[in-house]
Amino acid sequence: MSDHKRLVHFGIGAFHRGHQAYYLQLLNDTLPESERWYYTDVNLREETRAIPDALRAQNGQYHFKRIAPNGDAEYIKISSIDRVEDASADPSVIGRIFNDDNVKALTITVTEGGYYLTDTDDVNLSHPEVANDITVIKQQSGQPKTLFGFLALALLARQSMANGAITVATCDNLRDNGHRLAKAFGQFAEAAQLSDLKQWMDVNVTFPCSMVDRITPVPPASLSHEIKQQRGEEDACPILGEDFEQWVIEHKLANAFPALDAVGVTFTKNVHAFEEAKIRILNGGHFMLSYVGALRGYQTFDQNIHDDELNGWLKAYHQKDVIPTIDDRPFDLEAYRQIIISRFSNGYIADSIERIAMDSISKFPQFILPTLKLSLGRGHFPISAIILIAHWYCFLSLKITGRFVFSYKDPYLSTAEMWMHQQDPVGAFLSDPDIWQGLNKQYPEFGESLKRQIAITMDAYQEQY
């Protein structure tokens, strides 16, 4: 094993390989070999083993096609990942990875649903996969299924070391993501009877918040051939991404960390202002147009932007419902909105609506609900939001009842299925406490307006579906 300082990453998806690993590559390109950092990437899920298998066969190396809205592209070889492990096949590898003085930090991308949070930001200890991990950690045997089980194994390994302090930086699209992970993992550790570990963590582990941004769609099957033509190299797992990237990290580090500020990463004490703008304008915009676009038969998100009606709805949502409710502004929000629309229109990225639409049940409270609460709290009635949310409901209704064929993935789909199987599906939807968190009780006129809009929207799709 090399003597390089190391980062570990949980979750080997395209976003990580086009973001954290990309930034580390930029930094390494400026450093002599002896000062470079490298990633050990760890797969956690059995169903995602194909990626680590392909990466391992290439010694962790792959190509990143970075493309601008005008079609200008560059092909970047990424070699900042030099170890790839699969903890879904052998969880004992976690102890071996983290029991290493060269490991200084862990970064994480497991998607929003991978945190199993309730509407009160508590970890759902009764979820079967979380309950499995509590048993695995208590009994010190078995296969973890969630981030919490694997993180417990990692931190137990660090606790056994003389200098085990470590930064745990989640990079998923959750507000206050570091604080929420710290709270949720603390609850998990308590349930797993890890009181000594919790005390050790108070001194030796930090959970900085972070904001990350880059669109990395599922690459076309032809990309490997394109890499061969452009670079003359075989690559079974290249990635595609836009030419925009952003990473903001809370300056709250427990150990050494690469000097990524040298390549554009922002270290700050106030991540919240950055993430609020990004989550509500970009992620919220993605959410709001995905389902109406799907119902109109569009395949990629840029088609939504080139539909004048949909683009107008999104502009109204941003300018009337979202931006007026963001008070802490780290940059010009209207200029930022225009940049995002340009990014959304990038047909060379051709980001699939199928990818963006997934996991809507857990995304709605994160991306949309805060805007609704703040708008209504200031006396503004969010008409644009109501139109678009009605399309989300119709999408789920038509999908679940079999009238609309769409490849939709959501670990919480059973929640929507429960609504649709009630005598009054719309009423069940509007009264779900995990979705609305009391909003419709506080503002009943909002719920009534949305109910009427859902009826109008469902009628509009009657003939088509």
From TrEMBL:
It is an enzyme of class 1 (oxidoreductase). Its EC number is 1.1.1.-. Keywords: NAD, Oxidoreductase. The keyword NAD applies. The keyword Oxidoreductase applies. PANTHER family: MANNITOL DEHYDROGENASE 2-RELATED (PTHR43362:SF1), MANNITOL DEHYDROGENASE DSF1-RELATED (PTHR43362). This is Mannitol dehydrogenase family protein. It comes from Enterovibrio norvegicus.
